[in-house]
Design brief:
Strand order of the largest sheet of chain A: 1-13-5-10-9
Strand content of chain B: 15-25%
Number of strands of chain A: 13
Radius of gyration of chain B: 22 Å
Strand order of the largest sheet of chain B: 5-6-7-3-8-9
Helix content of chain A: 40-55%
Radius of gyration of chain A: 25 Å
Order of helices and strands of chain B: EEEHEHEHHHEHEHEEHHH
Structural class of chain A: alpha+beta
Number of helices of chain B: 10
Number of helices of chain A: 10
Order of helices and strands of chain A: HHHHEEEEEEEEEEEEEHHHHHH
Structural class of chain B: alpha/beta
Oligomer: heterodimer
Chain lengths: 402, 285
């Protein structure tokens, strides 16, 4: 059986490679990012725009376009291979399904590599401007304040109220850091509901070592800031974050405060992002192929679209006040607020795993090097995608071909 | 043991809601012996293709039993024992003719060496050697049909199920196909054919069955089914007018009624073959 699957798999790849569509698509994937970044002006002042565009294209391409292309192609392009296969009798239909699906996986991987390679080429052409910051993670995160024994219900994320007494404290190893420290913050904000936000950034940051230094903060995006200060000295450095906007509670995880260590080329980051994007894309493709084993191409494409949209949108479904409500319930011991069924459902669904973990993508957009943090979850998605194929194969083998 | 056995086969197609829509087969029973060429005849929608698809495991019957070379259809043993040529081309368009045959050889379990040897032999056999390196996408329908037949032959199956095997073939191709079928039958292979061209079935089949609306109307050998009772045909050669006249007079004198007398007409196919056959063979078509 394995030999037959292998033979069909190679044949399917050969067929795909000889299709003119494959060549056009491959070339487009390779050149789209370099060409797009090159076309956006050529002057020195526009380098930042080009860097941003390059990162955006690679990030959004892998995060959105790749899964969409994967499930659409899986729904519509697999039929010819399957239809031509079911009359070749020595092979089972399930073997054709597995082999054709694996060919889809390889083609998707190839598309991912081409898109990433195009991004890498564009990035290299931009020189030093496209280098990414390599960051150091905090060893620990604590919440300190008047009621520090209480933790938020979200165990990974700790929240502070803007009462001036509660702080989030990140502790870093100080070895190898320069005279000036720069860092990045990423946070969740929970609107308290009583008044409108007042500050441009909801946090005040202080660095504590041999001495204490107040950092200068810059807002990068709605939930992202940078800070900069002199190195306070010492073997460890603590970064203390205090909520200062009376309208917002702020929640952070241990890996959401990072000190910048050095700068490096973007290629390794693109590869980590590619792995994440590929995991999501193949999961979508696998579900689509499974549905396609029993249903028509439009139905299968719809199933892929549903999985894609559900796992992309549902995790962000809960309202912006969810962290604040959790904080009130868990830290202050408030009674759970009566919620409508829809609100409860939205909260439950918001805890679903995302199709593609957003962390590395957000880092890239913030100019940070992506790491291997999400490699496990990406591999899990790849395994899940592969694990769904036998189900599709069994269903397709049992399906009647009229 | 019959090479192909269909016993009381029933199949009804249902709609999305499970309601019975079309009764495609209604108690079909056929037994085909090894080495026999069996023709399945009937109008469109009579159930021929459904019966074929059940034989190759693409459709499951509602009731009844099917055995192909003693195996249940769809099982690996049955699939290895069966060569199926569907009505529509199922060839992969971007493979060459040679690659197509080697793919079938590999799937049939042939070694690489055996696959290479057999594919070259079959390309020669079906007259496609000059087009062996061309991609199937550019083939005419007739060429695709011949390549399809060669593909079926790669696995050397015991039972051939050929759905409209001469569809799209020119008269020479049809003649080659019929010769091939006869040759395979001579080697003890069992062949199940369907065709709308009754003349072709008549030339190659040992037995035929007539289907309509899923029911078996009649089956038997061509001799049993086609022999006209109470009529005798006498062919004379050479055609000497005086001798023929005296034979006719003698027949009338003995009370026989002569329905037709004259030089027989060739069939258009035989004339086509006699005119074009040799030329095309020389050019390798």
């Amino acid at each position: 059986m394995l030999q037959r699957v292998f033979v069909i798999f190679l044949t399917a790849l050969l067929e795909a490679a000889r299709s003119p569509l494959a060549w056009v698509g491959g070339i487009l994937l390779l050149v789209v990012i370099p060409v797009a970044t090159h076309l956006v002006g050529g002057s020195e002042t526009e380098t930042g725009v080009r860097v941003w565009l390059c990162r955006s294209l690679i990030s959004e391409g892998l995060r959105w376009l790749l899964p969409i292309a994967a499930f659409t192609a899986s729904a519509y392009l697999i039929r010819p291979s399957l239809k031509r296969g079911w009359a070749i009798l020595p092979a089972r239909r399930s073997e054709w399904f597995i082999a054709s699906s694996l060919a889809v996986f390889v083609a998707t991987t190839f598309a991912t590599v081409l898109l990433s390679a195009g991004g890498a080429v564009a990035s290299m052409a931009l020189g030093d401007a496209s280098l990414l910051d390599v960051t150091r993670l905090a060893r620990t995160l604590d919440r300190r304040g008047s009621r520090s024994d209480l933790r938020a219900s979200d165990q990974d994320r700790l929240f502070v109220f803007p009462n001036g007494r509660e702080t989030l404290v990140f502790e870093f190893d100080a070895e190898g850091l320069g005279e000036v420290l720069r860092g990045k913050l990423q946070f969740e904000i929970g609107w308290m509901g009583e008044i409108a936000p007042e500050k441009t950034t909801p946090l005040e940051v202080r660095l504590i070592g041999d001495r204490t230094v107040t950092a200068i903060t810059h807002v990068e995006a709605r939930r992202r800031s940078t800070f900069e200060a002199e190195n306070p000295g010492g073997r460890t450095i603590r970064v203390e974050c205090r909520g200062i906007d009376p309208a917002l509670s702020v929640g952070m995880k241990r890996d959401e405060c990072r000190l910048l260590v050095r700068r490096e080329d973007a290629l390794p980051s693109f590869l980590w992002l590619a792995l994440g994007g590929l995991g999501g894309a193949l999961l979508c493709a696998s579900v689509t192929l499974g549905v396609r084993s029993l249903a028509t191409a439009p139905t299968a494409a719809l199933a892929g679209a549903l999985v894609f949209s559900a796992l992309t949108l549902l995790p962000a479904l809960a309202g912006g006040d969810l962290p604040a409500r959790k904080r009130r319930e868990a830290v202050e011991g408030a009674r759970p607020i009566d919620r409508s069924t829809a609100q409860s459902l939205a909260e439950t669904l918001s805890e679903m795993p995302a199709l593609i973990e957003p962390r590395n993508f957000e880092r890239l957009m913030a100019g940070e090097a992506a790491g291997s943090d999400d490699a496990d979850s990406a591999l899990l998605r790849l395994l899940l995608a592969a694990g769904l194929l036998p189900v599709g194969a069994i269903l397709f083998g049992r399906r009647e071909v009229l | 043991m019959p090479a192909v056995s269909l016993e009381n086969l029933c199949k009804t197609f249902k709609d999305f809601f499970g309601r019975r829509r079309v009764c495609a087969l209604d108690g079909l029973s056929i037994a085909i012996e090894p080495g026999e060429v069996f023709g399945l005849l009937g109008p469109n929608g009579s159930g021929k293709s459904t019966a074929f698809k059940i034989c190759v495991g693409l459709i499951r019957p509602d009731s009844g039993q099917v055995r192909i070379a003693g195996y249940a259809p769809g099982s690996l043993a049955a699939r290895k024992a069966t060569g199926y040529l569907p009505e529509d081309s199922t060839l992969l368009p971007f493979l060459t003719a040679r690659e197509t045959l080697r793919l079938h050889g590999a799937l049939s379990g042939l070694t690489r060496k055996a696959s290479v040897k057999k594919s070259e032999e079959l390309l020669e056999r079906v007259g496609l050697q000059s087009a062996a390196a061309r991609r199937v996408k550019g083939f005419s329908k007739g060429m695709q049909r011949r390549l399809g037949v060669a593909s079926v032959l790669m696995g050397d199956p015991e039972v051939f199920i050929l759905d409209e095997p001469t569809s799209g073939l020119d008269p020479l191709g049809s003649r080659d196909m019929k010769e091939l079928i006869t040759e395979l039958a001579g080697k003890g292979k069992t062949i199940l054919i369907s065709s709308h061209l009754l003349g072709e079935i008549e030339n190659v089949c040992h037995r035929v069955a007539f289907l309509n609306q899923g029911r078996l109307l009649k089956q038997g050998t061509l001799d049993e089914l086609l022999r006209e009772q109470g009529v005798h045909e006498l062919r004379l050669s050479p055609s000497d007018a005086a001798a023929i006249k005296s034979v006719e007079e003698f027949a009338r004198a003995t009370g026989l009624n002569i329905e037709r007398s004259g030089a027989p007409l060739k069939t258009l196919e035989s004339f086509y073959v006699s005119v074009l056959g040799k030329t095309n063979q020389n050019h390798g078509r």
